[in-house]
Amino acid sequence: MVKPSFWAVLALLSCPCHLVLVLPLLAGTSAGAYLTRHQSLAVGLLAVLCFVSLTMIFYRRKPKPSGETAGCSPGKTGNGDEACCAPFRQE
């Protein structure tokens, strides 16, 4: 699985409004020459990549259903006990 921080960095770098900042950094490279020559195509592809990255960030950050904690699901723990969170055990 890819971490949400990867998607956040990818979204930041691929945002079309940042193309003005990215092009000078790529000056003198073949990628920079290609992006400069085909700027409209680059803006379109980077916009799609940015949208996908933002979607993946929010897709990965879904809230957990009630009764579950970050480390375990209801009724299971890593140490073999029945209750996940002892103080919140339902009896």
UniProtKB/TrEMBL annotation:
Keyword tags: Membrane, Transmembrane, Transmembrane helix
Transmembrane segments: 41-59
InterPro entries in the record: MerE (IPR007746)
A Pfam family of this chain: MerE
MF annotations from Gene Ontology: mercury ion transmembrane transporter activity
GO cellular component terms given for this protein: membrane
Family matches, as PROSITE patterns: PROKAR_LIPOPROTEIN (PS51257)
Protein name: Transporter
Species of origin: Geobacillus genomosp. 3
Lineage of producing organism: Bacteria, Bacillati, Bacillota, Bacilli, Bacillales
